[in-house]
Amino acid sequence: MGAKDVFTNPQFVTSPGNVGALKTSTDDQNNNIPALEQTEPSDEEWHQKYAFIIGLLRKPHAVLIKESLARERDKVSQKLQAYKLERSCVRDSIIKAKQIGTDNGAQQSLSAQMKHLDMMCVTLERQIDVLSNVDQAIPSTENIYSGEPDSLDGTSSEIMINDELDVPRGRNNRNSNFQITINGRSPLDAFAMLHLERCAHRETRKELNQIRKKYEVLRDEFDSGEGLSRSNSLLFSRINGDLEEDEMFSNNLTNDDQGTEMSIGTDDSSSRLVEEVRLKEMTISQLRSRLLHLEKARMDKVPVDAAREIARLHSTLVQLERVRDELTLQNYTLKSKLAELSARISDSATYRLEKPNHTNSSAPTVVIGSSHENGQDSSEDGTHVSVTSDELRLRRKSTYKVAHNNETNAEIKQLRAFINDLHAKEVEYQRKLSHMETELGNVKNQYADECAKRSEVEKSVAALKEQLEIAKQRVETTEKCFLMREEESSALKLDLDTLNEENKRLKDDLNLLHIKVEIEQSKSMEKLTKYEKEMSIFIEQNKTLLEDFNRERILRKKYFNLVEELKGKIRVFCRIRPPSKTEKSIDIVAKCSDPYTVTVETPTKGMKEYQFDRVFMPDDSQDQIFEDTKNLIKSAFDGYNVCICAYGQTGSGKTYTILGDETHPGIAPRTFSEIFLLANNMSQTYETQVSFYVLELYNDKLIDLLNPTAVVSSNDSPDNNKLEIRRDRRGTVWVSGAKVQFADDSSSLERNFRQALLSRHTATTRMNDRSSRSHLIVGLIIETTSKVNGTVQRGKISLVDLAGSERTGKSGVSADTLREANAINKSLSAFGDVINALTTDQSFVPYRNNKLTLLMQDSLGGNAKTLMFVNISPSSFNLDETIISLSYASRVKQVTNAVTRNAESKEIARLKNVINRIKRGESSSVDEDS
Ligand SMILES: Nc1ncnc2c1ncn2[C@@H]1O[C@H](COP(=O)(O)OP(=O)(O)OP(=O)(O)O)[C@@H](O)[C@H]1O
C-alpha cells in the first residue's frame, strides 16, 4: 500500500514505462526473455525518488525528525534501563526465593515476571535498533542541502526497513507542526516505503536474473547442438509462431488432405514417450496450479508494485512454459512426420525392389502402414495387389516420386541422415528437456521454499505489526489520557486560580474579621476583667455575707438558745428512730424536713409540723446526739442542775438514747467520760468530787439500784423503806436513804452503773424485747472546789429514762405486767398534768401527785437546765402515739425553769462543813427544808 502510494504519486514516476511494467526488448522478443535491466528503475531514478522526498525534508524538518528520533530513542533506552533494573531485582528475588525456599506459586510468578521482562527488554532493544537505523537512513543536514545523490545511494543508505519501522508520532512531532504529507503519509514514511520498494525490486531483479541465466544456459545448450541449425530454426520458427514453411513441408509429405489420419504406428517407444510426456505435463500443470496458488497467496501480502513485478515474472514463466510445450508438441509432430517419412521411404524401397519392371517408370509403389479399411488383404504375390483409394493415391504419389527417384534418392539419403540426426537430437532434446524440467522443478521448489520462508517472515512481520499496532494504540490511549489529564489539570488550575482568588478574598475578609474580633475581644476582655473583678468582689462579698449569715445564724441560734436558757425554757430534742424490722414494710409517716422541724403525715388532718430545738434523723449517730448535749455537762461543773430525760412511747428509743448499748453507748456513759474529762481539764484550778446514785421508780415505788437488797427489804416491810424524796433550800431534789457512791473515774462509775442496771425491771412486750417497766433516775453530783478561792460549786446531772407510754392492748403486755403498765401510765399522766400546769401558768403545780413528778420537780419548772428527748417511731403503725408524744413535747418546750447556780463562798462553805460536822456529831438530821 505504502509503496503504491509513493509510486502512484506522479512526482515519483519519472518514467512510467520503467516502473511497474515489464518491458520486453526488441532483441529478446524473439527469445521471449524479459529485459530485466530495463524494467527495474535505475539507481538514478531511485535517487530522483529519494531526492524528491529528501527535498521535502528541509533542514528544520530533518533536524526535528532526527531530534524526535533521538528523543524517542532516549525514552526507549530509559525504559529499557528501567526494565533491566527491574529484571535484575526480580532475578535477585528469584535467587532469594530459591534460597529461602518459598512456595512454588511465588517462584512461578517471579519466573513469569522474569520472562515478561526479558521479552520487553528484547522488544525495546529491537525498537532502539530500528530507531537507530531510521536515524542513520536520514541523511545529514549538509547532504540534504547539497542534495547529492551519492548521499542517498542505496549502498550507503542501506537500511533494514521492515514493518517494525516506528516513525515517532508523539507529541514532539505534533508540537513541531510537521505537517508535510505525501499522499497522506509523512515524508519519513514515504522515505521508508520507497526504500522498502527498492529492496523488493532488488530481490525480484536478482530472482529474475537467476531465471534468465538458467534460461540462457538452456538456450545455449539447445543452440550449440551439431547439425541443429535447421531444426533450431524450425523449432524457434515454431516457437515464434512461424509455421508456414513447416506446414508446406508437411503438406508436401502428407498431401495435406483433410480427414487423413497419419498413424505413427504402434511404436512402443513413442507411446511410452507420449505417456511420460503426458504424466510430466500433468505434474507440471499440478505444480503450476500450486505455484499459482502460492503466488496468489504471496501476492496478497507483498507490496503492489513488487506483486506486479512478480506477476509479470510469472506471466513470463508461463509464456516460457507455453513455448516449451509448443516445442514439445512440434517435436512430437516432427517425430510423427519422421516416422511417416521413414515408412514411406521403406515402402517406396520395398515397392521398387519387388516390382522393378512393373511399370515403365519403374517407380516403386509405396504401401503405407497397415491401413486396410476396406477389409481387403493385400496380396503378397506382387502381381495383384488389392489397395484402397488411399493406397492408390499413395501409389500415384510413389509413382510420381519414383519418377523423380533419381532426384530424390539423394534427398532421401539426406533425409535419412537427417532423421538419424533428428533421432539423436530428439534423444538429446528429450534429455535436455527433462533436465530443463528438472531444473524448472528445482527452481519452482526453491521458489516455493522462498515463498514459504517469505510467508513465515511475513507472518512474523504481521505479528510484529500487530504488536506495534497494540503498542501504538496504547501510546495513543496514553496520549489521550495524558491530554485528558492535561485538560483536567488546566481546568483544575483554572478552578484553583479562582479558588485562590476566593481564598485570598476570604483571607482578607477573615483578617478584617480577625482584627474586628481582636478589637471586640480586647474590649470584651476588658469588660470581662472588669466583670471578673466585680464578680470576685461580689463573690468575696457573698462569701463574707454567707459567712456572716452563718455566723449570724449560729449566733442567732446560740443567742436564741441562750435567751431561752436564760428564760429557763426546757429545751426539747426530737429523735426519730429507724424503722424496726417489722416496720420495714409499713409506710413512713414521720420525717425530718429540717434540723428543727419534724413532719407527720396524718390520714385525716394532713401534714402536721412540729418545731423543736433540734430534730435528729434515724441515721444520726449517738455521737451527734451527745455533741449537742455535752454543753449541759459543763453547766453542772458551773453549779447548775441539769436534767436530761427521754420521753416517748414504748419501743421508741428512749433507753437507746439515754443508755445505749455496748457498741453504741448512749448519753449516760458518754456523760461519765465527759465529767471526768472536764474534771481532769480543770484539775489545775478545781478539785472535783463526783458521786452518784441510781434509782428506779417501779410500780410507784422508789428502788435504790445501788443497793438492791434494800429494795427487797423495803418491799417486804414498808417500815424499812428509808428512801424519801426531799428538797434542799435551793429546790434541789435529793433522796434520803439512797446510796450515794463516790466515783474516782469514769470506768468505775460505768462499771457500777452497769451493775446497778442489772437490777432494773424489764419485760418483753409486743413492742419491745427489753421494755423498761420502770422509770430510771440517775443522779450525778459534781462538787468542784476552786483551788484559788475555795469556792464550792455543786451541780447535779439527772439522767431520766422514763418508762414507755403505751396502750396496754397494743403493747401486748400480759396480765402480770398490766399493773406495771397502769403504774407507768399513771405517773406519765401526772407528768402531763404538771406540764399542763406549768404551761398554763397555774399557781398550783401538782408535783406531789406522783413520785415521778416529785422527783422531777427541780427539772420541770424547777432549778435546772432541762433537756428532754422526745423519741418517736417513724411508722404509720405508731402514728397516734407519735402525734401524742410530739404534742406533749411541744407543750413541754413552753415550760420555764427557775435556773440558779449552786455556788457558795469559801467561808460559807467552811462554816457549813463545820456545822455539818457538829451536826453529824450531835444530830443526824440536817435537813433544812422538807
Ligand atoms: N436511734 C436508734 N438507732 C438504732 N436502734 C434504735 C434507735 N432507737 C431505738 N432503737 C432500738 O429500738 C429498740 C427499742 O428501743 P428502746 O428499748 O430504747 O425503747 P424504749 O423507748 O426504751 O422502750 P421501752 O419504753 O419499752 O423501754 C431497741 O432494740 C433499740 O436498740
From TrEMBL:
Q: Please verify whether the record's keywords include Glycoprotein.
A: no
Q: Which regions are flagged for Polar residues bias?
A: 250-268
UniProt protein name: Kinesin-like protein
Which species is this UniProt entry from? Answer: Allacma fusca
Q: What is its main location?
A: cytoplasm
One of this protein's Pfam families, by short name? Kinesin
Coiled-coil intervals in this record?
419-516
Domain Kinesin motor: start-end pairs:
569-895
